[in-house]
Each structure stands twice: as C-alpha cells, then as structure tokens.
Amino acid sequence: MSTDDPVESVEHELAVLLRRARATSGAIAREVHPDVGAAAYGLLLNLQQTGGARMTDIAAYFGVGKPTISRQVGFLERLGLVERVSDSEDRRAVTLRLTEEGVERLATAQQARRARLRELLDAWPRRDLETMGRLLHRFNDLPF
C-alpha cells in the first residue's frame, strides 16, 4: 500500500497483522489440540499468563458473559487441559488453571510457533527486531 499519510499506512498494516494473527492463532490452537479453536486458545493463554483465575475475572478480561466462558471451560476440561480448583481463601469460589497436560501442550505449541517466527525473521537484523518489539510494546500501551 502506498500512501503519504503515515496513520493510514499504520492502520492498513495493523489490519493485515490482525487478519494474519487470527489465522495463526487458529493454527496454533489446533497444535494444542485438534478441536481447540482460537477463542479457547485465548483462554488457555490467559490462564498461562495469570497462573489461574476465576471465571468472572476471565469473562471481564475478554468482555464476554460468564456463560460463554463456562462453555469454553467445560470444553477445555473435557479435553483435560483445564481444571477447577477450590479457592483457598473463599471455598465457594473456584479458580481455573491449566492442567499439567494443558501446560505441556501449550508450551509445545508455543515453541513450534516461536521456531517458525525465528525462521521467518532470521534474515532481519537484530536491531530491526529490537526496534519492532519496542514499537509494538509502545503501541500496545496506548489506551484504546
């Protein structure tokens, strides 16, 4: 795309990046388990990053209702990737966390993704990669 407006250029490249990220997310999700979709993969990533969370917190994070999360969690439980654990502070509350199998499958899929990314970016100078990482971090810190 050729444009003199840098904001238009950024907008266009972001649209391409997001489209590719959605497709990639689905492919990585299937590496975790053939039946896992992108939404369930996002939930697994959230649990990996937080170390575990309550359903209400996960629903708030994704901006969806608790029934939606509950369906996803039930599905992931049946696959053996997620488990419910009684909260030690409030026995009525339940914390969700990855099972050992969930941790292992997610790590394996992420390692494969990183290997592919390294392969794709192998020809890029380290300085360019550092700059890209810094700029993406700065962009992700914007208050949308």
From TrEMBL:
The record's listing under PROSITE patterns reads: HTH_MARR_1 (PS01117), HTH_MARR_2 (PS50995)
Entry-linked SMART domains: HTH_MARR
MF terms (GO), sorted A to Z: DNA binding; DNA-binding transcription factor activity
Q: Which UniProt keywords apply?
A: DNA-binding, Transcription, Transcription regulation
In the UniProt record, does the keyword Membrane occur?
A: no
- Name any one Pfam family assigned in the record: MarR_2
Gene Ontology BP terms: response to stress
Where is the HTH marR-type domain positioned along the sequence?
Answer: 11-141
Return the PANTHER family for the record.
MARR-FAMILY TRANSCRIPTIONAL REGULATOR, TRANSCRIPTIONAL REGULATOR, MARR FAMILY
Query: What name does UniProt use for this protein?
Result: DNA-binding MarR family transcriptional regulator
The organism is Actinopolymorpha pittospori
